[in-house]
Specification:
With 409 residues, the protein is mostly beta strands. It contains three helices and 28 strands. Helices cover 5% and strands 44% of the residues.
């Protein structure tokens, strides 16, 4: 079982800004752990109405007077407060906090997101976590330029600074780090897809970087992508518009980030995601794992590359050695996802897998009805056991609940 050393709260508060709290709105919040013990758990709470007009806050544990970094997320219809409970919170336990509005942020950014003109570079402290490629990355093979791709994550690092994903592997050059693509779609009576780039039927591309930023609790970005039909008469036709909202958390002994994908019809015409045994949210693992075959999977059912393909796990860990040290990426399927738990394609000889709900049957994305899918990624150095992964999944899908005990001005 991995030892997860919590970030020092005091280190996050170096360089604290002077803030004025006189006449500030104050709210008492109560956190309930639920039925499962938690540790290093991300907590979300709706922003209390008494604080709706404020942007910066100070959160303090009432039992010990400890200040806790907190950050506001205004993505979505309701603003949310986000913080991390780093110590162990026993099942069934409760904890109260005092939330006070302040005029300036009292905590420095620990997670940073920077744009170098071609990609977003995400870091926790001084450690690189991943790059999101918003510019087109050209194919390294000039004879096959169609493998060029934008709108995906690579490289992904582990906390030791090693790259754990692959891109443009000659074996399957259309698999790119962490990506989202459907293998088989029908649009306006035509077959298309953004997965099989060699076929030239379609593609997925980044179209707009809407927003990005850092913070004391998480860094984030919001990107727009488009799934395009290249077989349409006249000119390529937009099939699906997609938004990625990605949050990376201030944890540095393992990396933790969420991807929420929202797909909508790009026209008044529906899109059929046709039955096939692969395609969806995908990760391609380290090139050495393919070369040596020394990778494996672990699922919540204890399955591996021998017997896990097309099962329906809540989570999958893809792991193997890099420079003699074990490392892996755990991907968790949120319980709100369509057809949860989604079937998985666990390839037995190539280090890649995907959550692929279309393997059960086709489904249709209708105009005006967004298709939303959520996944959490946990990148670890060292091995990961079932009990730790189960706890992480519960913390994701059944996170501690927060209620307002009292509020006032």
């Amino acid at each position: 079982m991995m030892t997860r050393t919590a970030l020092s709260i005091s280190s996050l508060l170096i360089g604290v800004l002077f803030v004025h709290t006189a006449n500030a709105a104050t709210v008492t919040l109560e956190l309930s752990a639920g039925d499962v013990a938690c540790e290093n758990v991300v907590v979300e709470s709706e922003l209390p109405s008494a604080l709706a007009d404020h942007e910066h806050f100070m959160l303090t544990r009432i039992d010990n007077g400890q200040d806790v970094p907190v950050q506001l997320d205004r993505e979505g219809s309701k603003p949310k407060l986000v913080w991390i409970v780093r110590d162990k919170l026993d099942a069934g336990s409760h904890r109260r906090y005092r939330l006070v509005s302040v005029t300036d942020s009292p905590q420095p950014n620990y997670v940073t997101v920077a744009d170098d003109g071609r990609r977003l570079l995400v870091q926790v402290g001084a450690k690189p976590v991943f790059s999101y490629n918003h510019a087109t990355v050209p194919s390294p093979d000039s004879k096959h330029p169609y493998y060029a791709r934008s709108g995906y994550i690579h490289p992904l690092y582990n906390p030791a600074g090693q790259i754990v994903t692959d891109d443009f592997n000659p074996d399957h050059a259309h698999q790119h780090g962490i990506m989202m693509a459907w293998r088989k779609m029908t649009f306006d009576g035509r077959s298309t897809n953004g997965w099989d780039q060699q076929a030239g039927l379609g593609k997925v591309k980044h179209t707009q970087l809407e927003t990005f930023g850092g913070g004391p609790v998480f860094g984030f970005f919001k990107a727009r992508l488009r799934h395009v039909d290249l077989t349409a008469p006249g000119e390529p036709a937009a099939v699906l518009d997609e938004i990625w909202y990605v949050r990376t958390y201030a944890i540095n002994d393992a990396f933790l980030f969420d991807i929420t994908s929202t797909q909508t019809c790009a026209s008044a015409k529906p899109v059929s995601i046709d039955t096939i045994h692969y395609g969806g949210m995908t990760i391609r693992g380290h090139a050495d794992w393919h070369k040596h075959g020394n990778f494996d999977y672990l699922t919540d059912e204890g399955k591996s590359k021998v017997d896990g393909n097309q099962t329906r796990p809540r989570w999958v860990d893809l792991f193997g050695p890099i420079d003699g040290q074990a490392t892996g990426t755990l991907i968790m399927d949120h319980k709100s996802n369509f057809r949860f738990p989604q079937p998985v394609r666990l390839h037995p000889t190539m280090p890649y897998f995907c959550f692929t709900p279309a393997s059960l049957d086709s489904f249709t994305i209708q105009p005006g009805a967004p298709y939303v899918s959520r996944y959490r990624f946990y990148v670890h150095s060292g091995s990961l056991d079932v009990s730790t992964a189960n706890r992480l999944w519960h913390q994701y899908s059944d996170s501690p609940k927060v209620r307002i005990v009292n509020s006032g001005e």
